[in-house]
Amino acid sequence: MALEAHNRFVHEAAVEIGIPLRAQDEVECRHCAVHCEKVVHPGACIRMGCPFVYAYEAWGRTYMGCLQKVFDVEIDLSLLEAAETELGGFGAVRARRSPLPMCEVEVVPCYRSREDELGCRNPEFHELPRERASFRVFARVSDVS
After folding, report:
1. N or C: which end of the chain has fewer CB within 10 A?
2. What is the CA radius of gyration of the chain?
């Protein structure tokens, strides 16, 4: 009976804190005062020729965005390309949904000065998507005659 009560207490505490089951899929973390966010680099989408980049022309300008809505802003392509030639590049924009494995993503703390001695309460949040699947499937075709 004591074990049941302990398990119920642990479950209720986890629900109260609101820790997600897959913290690495979240785009922001508010479990401490630092407030971390995942950001993506749209310049990298253009450089690598991401298949989810779209562009359209309006008002005499070309705008680009992400079909998967990893980021939900539309950026003036000429301004992005001009900024990418500068030293710091265009920079990052806030991720609005879980980044795809090919996204150039990083975790940015918003209020680093608020960090305390306990440190990160949600270290799984900093796990970024893997670039490749952890296994491969090989098909061997042989002539069966």
Report:
1. C
2. 21
Look at residue 134 and give its three-state secondary structure. coil
Q: Considering the entire predicted model, what is its pTM?
A: 0.67
Give the β-pairing of 53-58 and 105-109.
unpaired
Q: Does residue 73 contact residue 65 with C-beta atoms inside 8 Å?
A: yes
Q: What is the dihedral of CA 84, 85, 86, 89, to 10 degrees?
A: 20
Between CA 138 and CA 59 the distance in angstroms is 49
**Residue ranges per domain, the chain?**
23-126
Q: pLDDT for 67-123, tens place per residue?
A: 999 999 999 999 999 999 988 889 899 999 888 888 888 888 888 888 888 777 777
Asked if residue 38 lies in contact with residue 28, where contact means CB atoms within 8 angstroms, the answer is yes
Residues whose CB falls within 8 Å of the CB of residue 39, separated by 6 or more in sequence, listed in order? 92, 93, 94, 95, 105, 106, 107, 108
